[in-house]
UniProtKB/TrEMBL annotation:
Keywords of this entry: Nucleotidyltransferase, Transferase
Record-annotated Ap4A phosphorylase 1/2 N-terminal domain positions: 3-150
List of catalytic residues: 143 (nucleophile)
Any one GO BP annotation for this protein: nucleotide metabolic process
Protein name in UniProt: ATP adenylyltransferase
Domain ATP adenylyltransferase C-terminal, residue spans: 187-278
Pfam families assigned to the protein according to its UniProt record, in alphabetical order: Ap4A_phos_N, ATP_transf
GO molecular function, one term: ATP:ADP adenylyltransferase activity
InterPro entries from the UniProt entry: Ap4A_phos1/2 (IPR009163), Ap4A_phos1/2-like (IPR043171), Ap4A_phos1/2_N (IPR045759), ATP_adenylylTrfase_C (IPR019200), HIT-like_sf (IPR036265)
SUPFAM superfamilies with a match to the protein in the record: HIT-like
Length: 280
């Protein structure tokens, strides 16, 4: 059983960070949206009228170099730091960042997967990664994100998409089927090398290319990683109808602001919204 020391420390650190204002949670109101196949999306509307998505991207406005030491949970190996997300929707939202600058839109490497596995041995949950601005990344300094989940909880509302490996529950959308693929994990016997190889295999399968053939993937993409599966989504753009959509949208979590077209969403549904931002 995981000790969850990182999770416990993140909660304690969050309490202090709230008191010194280094943590700025995003307040939301939760709603639920269903699809034709009875999948349920969680839709959170930002309740703060002053909240704005960041429009800056890249190392010139890099909050991770240096990172805010008040948000540091721990060092992970020689190359990574585990910190709190400064703007969480869920308290205890963690970021695994590289100590040195690496591009978000480059290939993930072996040391990234070693750091992820090191954290996962202690605290598990839903990992997600946005490969660049068109996939919903707000910063170009490499970072993976972790939302802690209890061992027996499902990782996300759309877990059934990825658990079956053939995405049988995506039958209502051939476009999403072409742009989402997944693989099962065997976390007890899996090494970082195994996980890295699964990532490379899925990238090739979905048409992103391979590190040996190109310096960057052919498309922007999202990663979702639970203890039982890994999923990859090929993307074309970040926004659709006023919604900023990152990897969490493909996990079943939508976030709306005062710029989001709720009338369109209520009429067309979340599946159509996801179809707007994947590759053709």
């Amino acid at each position: 059983m995981n000790q969850e020391n990182y999770w416990i420390k993140s909660l304690s650190l969050s309490k202090n960070a709230l008191e010194n204002s280094s943590l700025k949670p995003i307040n939301t109101n939760l709603e639920y949206l269903s699809t034709a196949t009875n999948l349920i999306f969680e839709y959170r509307r930002v309740s703060s009228i002053n909240f704005k998505f960041s429009t800056t991207f890249g190392p010139k406005e890099n909050p991770f170099r240096p990172w805010d030491k008040r948000l540091q949970i721990d060092t992970i190996g020689n190359n990574h730091i585990l910190i709190l997300n400064k703007y969480p929707v869920q308290i205890g939202h963690m970021l695994l960042i590289t100590r040195k600058w690496y591009p978000q839109d480059g290939w993930l490497n072996q040391t990234d997967w070693e750091a992820l596995k090191a954290v996962e041995k202690d605290t598990s949950g839903l990992w997600f990664f946005n490969s660049g601005p068109k996939a919903g990344a707000s910063q170009n300094h490499r970072h993976l994100q972790l939302l802690r989940r209890k061992i027996l909880d499902i990782s996300c509302p759309l877990e059934s998409w990825y658990e079956g490996n053939q995405n049988i529950n995506l039958c209502e959308s051939s476009l999403l089927r072409r742009n989402i693929c997944s693989a099962k994990r065997s976390i007890k016997n899996e090494t970082a090398y195994d996980l890295h190889n699964t990532y490379i295999r899925l990238c090739d399968r979905i048409g992103l290319g391979a590190p040996d053939d190109s310096t960057k993937p052919n498309y922007p993409y999202n990663l979702l990683i639970s203890p039982n599966w890994i999923g990859i989504i090929r993307r074309s753009k970040e926004y659709a109808y006023g919604f900023s959509l990152n990897a969490l949208a493909f996990a079943g979590y939508l976030l709306g602001t005062n710029k989001s077209n709720n009338d369109w969403l209520n009429k067309n549904g979340p599946i159509k919204l996801l179809e707007e931002v994947v590759a053709d």
